[in-house]
Structures are given as structure tokens and as C-alpha cells.
Specification:
The chain has 177 residues and is of the alpha+beta class. It is built from 3 helices and 9 strands. The protein folds into 2 domains: 28 residues; 142 residues, Beta Barrel (Porin). The N and C termini lie far apart (54 Å).
């Protein structure tokens, strides 16, 4: 009898917690609200990407065998990478960044700059396309340019992103400082 009561209590707790987690979770991203209802015009959406954000992420990228002397470890054709840093969006389509990267085991500082613009392919939602170029003097690496799809949260405190370049697997969040 005691076992049945415990099992019943566990089922009730599980059902209520599932209802809370899945049934009442708020919509967190600006892309969840159609453009006309959430934004009077693109400038309102663009204002969400204004200020300093931190980021940290990891992923894999296709990489040709590294030149001699560069301490990169590969996993098949891919090289693991991770980064942590800050990015500043000016609210008008330009970005700058400073981070520390680790590419296959070799760490180095980088600077970055780029542009971002409202995604006109889906004007009903607040989202952006960005082009971001990273530069480092370490190991004689050339600059690398990546393309991102960005979706800010409704309050602009968090921005979800994914790299859209073939051969690069990476996504993450930017957190407003």
C-alpha cells in the first residue's frame, strides 16, 4: 500500500512538473512574435542588438592539414575549436570583438569586426544575418570570415546564433553584459 502511494505521488509530481515545463514555458525569442505585433519597424528590432555581449562556444570545423609547426589536433577532417570573448554591436549594423580562441589545442587571442543587418527574407520576425571576420597574428593564421544567423530575445539580453557556413558546426548564445 505504501509503495502504491509513493508511486502515485511520483506520477503526480512528474505530471505537474511536465505541465509546468512544457505547457507554460514563455516564448523567449523575438522571432516568436510576428513583426507587425512586436516591432513598428526594423529600427526597433535593430535596437535589440546594441551594446556589449559576452560569448563562449565550441564546435568543429573542416580544416585542411595544418602547416608544419602549428599544434592543431584533428579528428578525421575536423578540428575542434572553442572561444570566449566579448562583442560590441553599435545598434546600426557594425560589430567589433575581442576573444581568446583554441583551435585544435593551440590557444591564441583574436580581434574581430563585421556587419549585421535585419533579415529581409522573413520580415515578419526579428532576426539578423551577420558577417564576422576574425584576425590573429598567432601561428601565421589568415583571417577567417564566418556568417551567422542571429535571433535576439524579446528584452535584448540574450541573442541566439548559429554559424551558417558549410563545414562549420557551431551555435550558442550571446549574453548582454
Amino acid at each position: 500500500m505504501q509503495t502504491r502511494r509513493i508511486a502515485f505521488a511520483v506520477m503526480i509530481i512528474f505530471a505537474l512538473s511536465s505541465l509546468f515545463i512544457f505547457g507554460f514555458s514563455p516564448k523567449a525569442l523575438a522571432s516568436d512574435i510576428p513583426f507587425p505585433a512586436a516591432w513598428e519597424h526594423q529600427d526597433s528590432c535593430l535596437s535589440l542588438l546594441n551594446g556589449n555581449f559576452t560569448y563562449g562556444f565550441q564546435g568543429f570545423t573542416l580544416f585542411a592539414p595544418p602547416p608544419t609547426g602549428i599544434p592543431f589536433d584533428q579528428i578525421s577532417a575536423y578540428v575542434p575549436f572553442s572561444m570566449a570573448g566579448t562583442v560590441t554591436f553599435d545598434g546600426h549594423g557594425k560589430l567589433t570583438s575581442l576573444d581568446f580562441a583554441n583551435l585544435g589545442g593551440g590557444g591564441f587571442p583574436r580581434t574581430g569586426s563585421g556587419t549585421y543587418a535585419f533579415d529581409t527574407t522573413n520580415p515578419n520576425y526579428c532576426s539578423f544575418n551577420a558577417t564576422w571576420t576574425f584576425t590573429s597574428n598567432a601561428f601565421g593564421l589568415p583571417p577567417i570570415t564566418l556568417h551567422f544567423y542571429l535571433v535576439p530575445g524579446l528584452d535584448g539580453k540574450v541573442v541566439a546564433w548559429v554559424v551558417t557556413d558549410p563545414g562549420t558546426i557551431s551555435s550558442g548564445l550571446l549574453q548582454r553584459q
